[in-house]
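Backbone geometry:

***
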Amino acid sequence: MIWNEAPIADVLAKDEFYTHELFIWFWHTYGYDQVSKMPEWVSQQDRFAECFDGKAKGKCGFKSSSSIRKALEKNSTAELSESTLKKLFEGGPPPEAITFAMKSLGTCFGDDPSLPTLDELGLFAGEFDIQVCSKPATELELRPEKLGDDLAAYRSWGVALRRYMSRPGVFDRRKECRVAPIAARPLMQEYLGRVEKREREIAAYENRSVAERVAGLNAMQIAYSLVYRTNSGEHEPTRPMPQGSFDWQANYAQKVRDGYPEPGIPQAVMDWALEQPLTRFEPVEDPFEARYRLHEAELTDEIWARHVASRLNKLAPQTPRIRVNEGCDILMNIVRNDIQFGKRTPQTRGEAEYYRLVSQSRPSWAQIMCNETPAAIFENAKTRYEVTQREKAEKANRLAEPQAPNEWDEILKGLNDYANRPSSKSGPYQPPTTRCYTTGYTESGLANRVCFEN
């Protein structure tokens, strides 16, 4: 699976491409002799030292060893000849390290029965186009944090596939992806589904019927497309085009893109066009629509006015149109709302074209559109506007008229009257009109009193 021209020794020296798995494969494949001669390996030994750190907990398939780790951290070629590293590399990677690397590189280590199966490694085999594997590989290399833990664990597979199993950025069908993570299968199937859907769409488009190919076009538009495609070499005619065909095509394009009506077609050109097979016919974009799409800023008020008039004259020559001056803004607001919210369905082909033109027009072209308003659209908008205004007036009148009291109004009035009624306790102090004084007591104990009137 590894691209046979991949400069493994060179890329292992680069921080962004180095992986423990790839180094283990290189070591297993080429042995100590090549490892010791790797250019720039001196600058990457400390990366490999991680595999011997106690914090790695055997992640790379090696037992922790402080002596090996320290020797590698020195980044010195002299250390490779010392007994510690020489003994390590001459012995080859242990089975546990090969198992670790196989999770990224698959069966690149051979078919030794003692090696784990792909299923045990969480991989599956197949004959896949390199682009099918490229989607999950790209996500794994560039955006592993967005993937689930099951798939993110195979990030080095993505790096290996994109960097070593195929030339980066170049997809060659001879370089197939034969091993992939089981967790990547949904992404691969999603990509295949999109590819198959796109292929079906392309096939359906290529196999359109003649009726579908010429739908919505008139004879001059078909003839224009045939002449255009013949001049560009895309259509092989049954016989040479008659003299003047190219001049008519150029004149047609210029007139239409400037908003004028389509110029008449010479009979010789029409006869030639009628002879042409349409089974592979491809229409050419309308010159005005192409100009509107690519260079809309070039369109002046005069060009747009000509275009609107010529389109409506062509599609609805018998439909009466009126010029709306007073209330143009109101009319355009109603029409645009009808278009945006589907409040009114166009009743004729001319009305449908008018709606299409309004949706394409600038706000500054409102009066141009009002000048070409189909009478039925104006009458409908006028009636609805008058109804709305009448309803608003009636509502305002209702709000202005005093309302008849209801039951709650009567209850509240009664409570208010009760709260505001006169009270003897709440009036000002009034002194008594009679004053009495005790002057003595009788033998029986009764008081003798003398009273005076004020």
Q: What stands out?
A: Residues 47 and 103 are 19 Å apart (CA to CA).
